[in-house]
Specification:
transmembrane helix; transmembrane; membrane; 3 domains; YxlC family protein
Length: 138
């Protein structure tokens, strides 16, 4: 990725301020007065930072807190979705019982309870093709 010439000059000025660069930056396509002016401005800005005590930042803890917060948020969303769908299924059960009667509901439950596993197991094996054998090997 190409950097702009002004960004390169700024990086060189910062390096010169901290004494990390040995070569003279005056050979660039800018005037010495410009560099000195930038160095003075930079010195004023960086002196404040240099006088502050060092700050310890525990990046690992910050990342763990972010992951934990994201997991908690996902748990809340999953819980709300569970409540919504539970209420929806319960409402459908009540509606079916009111429209067709309890006897039809019991027959429907027996039919669904016996046929759904015969349908879901092969479909789940088709969609998880190759995943069953991988789990056994590990």
């Amino acid at each position: 990725m190409k950097t702009k010439k002004s960004e390169k000059i700024q990086d060189l000025i910062i390096d010169k301020y901290y004494g990390e660069i040995e070569r003279d930056v005056s050979g660039l396509d800018c005037k010495n007065a410009f560099i000195e002016k930038k160095l003075k401005l930079l010195k004023n800005k960086l002196e404040v930072i240099d006088n502050l005590p060092p700050v310890k930042v525990d990046i690992q803890k910050i990342i763990e807190n972010a992951i934990e917060t994201k997991a908690k948020k996902q748990e809340k969303v999953n819980f709300i979705l569970f409540l919504f769908f539970s209420f929806l299924v319960f409402s459908i059960y009540v509606l079916v019982i009111n429209i067709r009667g309890f006897e039809f509901f019991v027959k429907l439950q027996i039919l669904v309870g016996t046929l759904i596993p015969w349908f879901l197991i092969p479909v789940s094996l088709i969609f998880s093709k190759g995943k069953v054998g991988e789990n056994e090997e590990q």
